[in-house]
């Protein structure tokens, strides 16, 4: 009896509020479209896995242990996400066959999140090898010259500073 009572005279936790059916989220795509998109995400994860494997083989050939460890960590995480993706796709397939829209939306959300994690892992793997991830195109350099300055590359050297002679000794005592 003593264990069933709240400690220190505390009130029991309130019961959860009932769910309003009008607030349940509806999906904007069909279950078959979700499956198709999920399979495409799975192909993307396969290509990410292959890319990281190639990078790790190159790091191994270069005998770069630090880069190799970083890539192997990312490869392991991508493979785990691939396994989770397979389970989520299987669950999505089952929920589509049952016509359970709530379960479909849940599994599709999981699949989307797993895909996003895999994309982040690809970026992190590229960072392991020092690949630039924010390349947007070739660099264009524009040089602006101030007015009155010729626009040639071969500018004359600046004039040497003037030579200043020392002032005469101001003390009557000379050494």
Explained architecture:
The structure is a single chain. The chain is an all-alpha fold and 175 residues long. The protein has a domain at 26-129. 54% of the residues lie in helices and 0% in strands. The protein has 3 helices and no strands. Helix 1 packs parallel to helix 3 (101-129). The radius of gyration is 34 Å and the shape is elongated. The termini are far apart. The model has no long low-confidence stretch (mean pLDDT 82).
Computed CA radius of gyration, to the nearest angstrom: 34 Å
- Number of H/I helices: 3
Content of β-strand? under 5%
Give me the secondary-structure category. mainly alpha
Main pleated-sheet profile:
none
Mean pLDDT: 82
Strand tally is: 0
Helical proportion, percent range: 40-55%
Global morphology: elongated
Distance between the termini: 107 Å
Poorly predicted runs: none
- Element order: H for helix, E for strand: HHH
Strand-helix topology:
Layout: H1 31-61, H2 65-98, H3 101-129
Helix pairs in contact: 1-2, 1-3, 2-3
Describe what is shown at a glance.
With 175 residues, this protein is mostly helical.
Provide tags for this entry.
single chain, 3 helices, mainly alpha, 175 residues, elongated
């Amino acid at each position: 009896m003593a264990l069933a009572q709240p400690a220190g005279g505390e009130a029991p936790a309130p019961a959860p509020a009932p769910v309003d059916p009008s607030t349940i989220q509806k999906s904007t795509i069909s279950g078959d479209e979700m499956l198709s998109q999920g399979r495409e995400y799975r192909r993307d994860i396969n290509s990410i896995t292959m890319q990281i494997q190639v990078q790790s083989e190159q790091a191994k050939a270069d005998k770069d242990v630090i880069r190799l460890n970083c890539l192997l960590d990312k490869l392991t995480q991508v493979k785990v996400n691939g396994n989770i993706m397979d389970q989520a796709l299987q669950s999505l397939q089952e929920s589509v066959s049952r016509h359970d829209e709530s379960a479909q939306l849940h599994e599709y959300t999981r699949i989307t999140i797993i895909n996003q994690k895999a994309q982040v892992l690809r970026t992190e793997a590229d960072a392991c090898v020092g690949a630039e991830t924010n390349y947007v195109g070739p660099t264009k350099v524009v040089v602006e010259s101030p007015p009155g300055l010729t626009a040639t590359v071969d500018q004359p050297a600046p004039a040497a500073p003037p030579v200043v002679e020392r002032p005469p000794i101001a003390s009557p005592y000379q050494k």
